[in-house]
Amino acid sequence: xxxxxxxxxxxxxxxxxxxxxxxxxxxxxxxxxxxxxxxxxxxxxxxxxxxxxxxxxxxxxxxxxxxxxxxxxxxxxxxxxxxxxxxx
Length: 88
Hints:
88 residues, 4 helices, mainly alpha
């Protein structure tokens, strides 16, 4: 290649490079995961881990601690809040 051809090739936008740059600039919006969904996922994960022969008690305790957080939040969301008392 001549010098001019190399310069032209370098300056020429590459379609693969443009696609990767636009993908990096793109913001991916995710929806917020509810406590109930997290609770269900951790529950399935616990069941799966308990079925594995190579899992140990430390892994189970860690996952149970993580499971506890959405369980408490889920329970507080399901609980009815106090209604204001109105005397008759």
